[in-house]
Amino acid sequence: MPFPKLSAVLNNCPLHALTPEIKEELLKFREHADYDNKHNADYLLLKDKFAAFYGFNPAEFSWKQFADVLGSYNAFDTQIIMGPVLRLFMKDKMISNDFIAIIAQANEVSPEELIKNYTDLNPKTARYESLAPDELFTDVGQYLGLSLQYTPQDGPSRLIVAQDPVAQVNIFHNGGAEGAQTGGHWERTAKGEGSVDCQNRDDTQLNHFLPLLGQDSAVNPYGFDLLKKHVQLTARSLKEKKNLYKEFAELITTANQISQYLFNIVSVPRELAIKLLGSDLTADAALFISEYKFEEIHPNQIYEQWIKADASQKPKLGEYEQLIMNRLLMPVIAASSDANTPENKSGLTQAQTDFISREHKDSRLFETWYDNEDVLRLVWAMHQDLPESQRNQFMDPYVFFDTYNRHDIDEEIALCVRQLVEAPDRRYYPFIIKPEIGSAHYYAGIIRKDIVKGEPRLTTFLFNPTGSPEQVVKKLKLPSHVLIGGESLVLSPHEVQTRDKDNGRLVSCGPLCVEFIGYALQNPGWIDSLDERFVLPPKLQQIKDSNLEEYQAHITALREQHYQALAKVPDGQLSTILDDHLTFSTFISDELKAKARRRQIIDLKDDPFDEVDPADYEEDGEDIFSFSSDGENDPPPEPSDDEVDEPQVVTDVLPQTDILLAEQEEQALEEAEHATRSSSDEENVPVLPAEPSDDGIDEQQGVIDVLPQTDILQAEQEEQALEEAEHVAHSSSDEENAPVLLEPSDDGVDEPQTDVDVLPQTDVLLAEPNEEVVEEVEHVASSSSDVEDNSTPREPSNLTATEEKKHDDGHEGLDNLPGPAAINHPATSTLTEVIETELLAEEEQPTAFADNVVTPPVLAESDKESSEEEQPNALSDNVDAQPVLAESDEESSEEEQPAALVDNVVTQPVLAESDKESSEEEQPVAFAEEKPFVAERAKPALLQAEQNFEKQFKFGALDKKIANLLARLSEAKLNNDTAQYHNLREAYFAAKNLRRDLTAAGVVYFNNPTKEQYREFKTSCDGYLKTAHKTLDKHRGWSEFLVNLAIGIFTAGLGLLIKGGINLANNHSFFHVHKTASAKLLDDIEESVKDASKITPSA
User: Bias regions of kind Acidic residues — which residues (predicted)?
Assistant: First the structure.
């Protein structure tokens, strides 16, 4: 037999699973007085528990009464009725079970507390605790002769056989183990396939009471009281053999009034909430209102203002607020004394009445816009009218209202996509969007789920009645015309609706979109046939091809059909329909707010692939995000069909691809011009030609301003490299042998900057991998002062920016970097010459990198009395001298430097004794065991390291690589290149996922930068990069890019800085993977960085 879907009300779905078999057994007890299933005593206990809970005398309550009462309810209602009774049955069985004491002891609670936890409502959640399969069988199933076969979401099935079984119950579990509140749910069939949804059948009687159960612990007793009265009325009607429609109607009216009151008090004060209910309160509703305690809302909120204001003074409401107001003003209609009569006195349903009289407008007439609420009711009615098996293929239709300025439609669709993926038995998700404020232009769509090679592949088909795919992308702020919600998008190109046919006002979008959804619901085969051609439903194609007179006749006929469809919407369902919509809208809103908070945590506010900057879309000064009205509240406009949308290029659709080739060339030419004019400098400081300031006085521009946008690491690595070059340039003349880098201070006086400022990467955060490399850089810098003094800047290259780009060996996406002008700039030349000099020196003494020997900075004797806070340790003029540190520095070194390392020689600097105590207090041990770095001196370095890490991929190379993939993806779509499209789509998501995962890993690490966290951070990043390699290595330029990205991330930029400098020296891109004679030395550098990162410092 087909099994009913299991209700999650009160978190009782495990017990609800047993109700079909229990009901069958009760019928047998009714039919056969001598029936014996070997479990009679326990079924008798169950009958007595039922009688006691629902107010019958257990001694007089017969098997016939029990079976007849349950027989009066369908399968869904039976679950609701039996759930609390089975909890009471379970309590008795647990009390008599000696094993409960052992379980309680293991859980460190008393047996009484354990039993209470499982059988009483949790006051915090207003629901019962969920049950494990073993608990369901041990405490309930075995006593009733029900064997249990349990299939978890992941893993093999398990069969538990009862003694003298009367039936076997198969259950399947999905989601969180804690129950419905964490997404967990049980069903009687795999993935719920083939189960019957009995809740929305015409014979369901208890839906009105469900809002009063499992939502609020203070409301539960009133909900149970109404449930008990309903069962008692059913028994009475069976006994007296007469209809009690009036009594049933009063219970339903009471439930509706209480539900409406609970809704009202969230938005308006108590007094007004009661007034909105009207004067005909039932006795039970009045009792609830007098007894229910809650924290009252502050007075004079917007809804109260609107209700009390004169018609001309009412505050303006948004679409969502208007829906709330509609719900507040909705009268609580007394249930009909004929339980199955949905019509009011006029013979029309309330939905029909609203359709033809809302704001004194009749929506059957051609010139009337469809109201949001009418659309909501129509798609609900169409969905409910489907056969059960067909309805189960669809998610409940969702109608977006006023999404513009509230939520991002792309993100809302992403949530719908997620829901569809997580619903294994559903294939389609119909929806309607109305994204504009103050007007009523609707879009309709269907999300289709296909299974390809065992994996879900989703496609959204979006129908705009006026066509214009480019305008849809702009108006809905979609990331692309081929992607929405992270999945494929197909836009309808068909112009069904025009201003001419609509008499200048686009009034027909509502009927057209409802017809689109209605046809999709009735014809899932048509949905399966949809592709890039977007074949319209036959009726819409007929309307598209019709002339003006025929068009208006078709639209009027659709409106009449929709009016008739609303006859199937019972008055009692109106509040439920709106409540369901508001509940889901609240869920969407909460999810997106949570996502925004997570995005703030991982600092993705500037991620061009998660948010779109409106400025990127502006054309000719026009703000295209200012939606044009459809004319609902405007004077009749002149026809504007002669306005033709201009075709949109890929960069308009994809604002992320903002670095165009023209911009790159223009920037490179500007850099070349600046570099050419920079041959003369002042005091060995590289200076750019003066540029006019706002006050007309020429000011000198710093080196960092040379390359404001072309640095693929967004100026961070290059800025550090240039700062280091300036440091080298100034090191020839120092004060007290201390290298000092002068930077302009706020008051115009140059102040000395410590070596920590010069090389911010030398932070304690990455002490092991970084300090050794930094020491090598300092050693290189200290050995180059004479070289720098005698060097002359290179002549600027004669190559144009375009020609220089060709020298990048075809590495796509890697040429948004400094060209020859930047390389030949004095500052850059200084750095590259220093590195080249060091490389030549290493060729003569190859043991430096071969044995991974890292030489620390050498401190001069004259440094004994220099200030630690103001001056860095001086570098020895003799780079080959044995490192000798002043005795005064002896003890602080123990805190600042790692111990000497086997096979990786690091000479311990010796610090002055006067520094012993201050060093111990001020400096933490690098990677102190599982303790976060809290020292004040470590905080700037920590922040700098975090920024370095993020800039390895944010705002720079990785973002541009992703943007390039997205642009090519769009091009493949336009060219109908299916194979290329799927390959690029796979690569796009792999790259985007890599960016997301690296960002998240960085957040975790930098929030608690311990040694153990660094290991986990490195392991995680290694895994993410390896996963990305599998997909991205097939695409040009990505393999070498990921290699360099890994080096940069794991060294917070130092390894990449060295490597990038060598690249620049050889006229290559900063990220170029070397194939030159320096490759061996470069490999040595990389290997030393990699080895250093593996070292575990001494505690």
Answer: 608-623, 631-646, 744-754, 835-845, 887-897
Spatial neighbors of 206 by CB under 8 A, at least 6 apart, are 73, 76, 77, 80, 81, 227, 230
pLDDT tens for each residue of 444-467: 999 999 998 888 999 999 999 999
Tokens linked to 918:
């201050």
Q: Which residue has the higher pLDDT, 967 or 855?
A: 967
**Residue 445: what are its φ and ψ, rounded to 5°?**
-160, 165
C-alpha–C-alpha distance, residues 226 and 80, integer Å: 13
Cβ(126)–Cβ(215) below 8 Å: yes
Task: Please tell me what DSSP assigns to residue 646.
Answer: P
Q: Are 268 and 243 in contact (CB under 8 A)?
A: no
Distance CA 493, CA 279 (A): 54
Closest CA to 685 of 707, 703, 708: 703
Those residues with Cβ within 8 angstroms of residue 841's Cβ, 6 or more apart along the chain or in another chain? 783
Write down the residue that tokens 């706020």 correspond to.
746
Per-residue pLDDT band for 536 (boundaries 50, 70, 90) equals very high
Query: Which token pair is 342?
Result: 């949905």
CB 826 within 8 A of CB 683: no
Residue length, the chain?
Answer: 1099
3-state secondary structure of 644: coil
Look at domain 360-599 and name its CATH class: alpha beta
Query: What does the pLDDT average to over 195-208?
Result: 85
pTM: 0.46
Q: Which residues contact 962 (CB under 8 A, 6 or more apart)?
A: 609, 656, 988, 991, 992, 995
Burial label, 486 (beta-carbon count in 10 A; 0-12, 13-18, 19+): middle
> For the chain, what is the total number of helices (H) and then of strands (E)?
43, 16
Q: At what angle do helices 1054-1065 and 1038-1050 cross, to 10 degrees?
A: 130
Residue with the two structure tokens 């009927």:
511
Coil/strand/helix, residue 1069: coil
pLDDT in tens, 405-423: 456 788 889 989 999 998 8
Measured CA to CA, the distance from residue 857 to residue 907 in angstroms comes to 9
What's at 117, amino acid-wise? Answer: N
Q: Tokens for 282?
A: 């039932």
Q: Which residues lie below 8 Å from residue 794, measured CB to CB, with a gap of 6+?
A: 823, 824, 829
Whole-angstrom Cα distance, residue 876 to residue 882?
10
- Cβ pair 77, 204 in contact under 8 A: yes
> What's the pLDDT at 951?
58
Residues 6+ away with beta carbon under 8 Å from 257: 277, 281, 282, 285, 332
**In this predicted structure, which of 367-371, 435-439, 587-591 has the lowest mean pLDDT?**
435-439
pLDDT at 713: 42
Burial of residue 495 (CB within 10 Å: 0-12, 13-18, 19+) is middle
DSSP 62: -
Tokens of 63: 């098997």
The CATH 3.40.395 portion of the chain extends over 360-599
Q: Give the span between the Cα atoms of 203 and 784, in whole angstroms.
A: 91
Closest CA to 185 of 131, 149, 240, 119: 131
How much is the pLDDT for 477?
86
Q: Which two tokens stand for residue 142?
A: 């075995």
Please check whether residue 506 is in contact with residue 630, taking contact to mean a CB–CB distance below 8 angstroms.
yes
Determine how β-strand 691-692 pairs with β-strand 698-699: antiparallel
What are the two backbone dihedrals, phi and then psi, of residue 593, each rounded to the nearest 5 degrees?
Answer: -65, -40
Q: DSSP letter for 882, please.
A: P
- Asked if 218 contacts 293 with a C-beta cutoff of 8 angstroms, the reply is yes
Least confident piece of the model among 539-553, 791-805, 1003-1017: 791-805
What pLDDT is stored for residue 420 in this prediction? 92
| Beta strand spans in 122-222 (E) | 146-151, 158-160, 167-174, 185-187
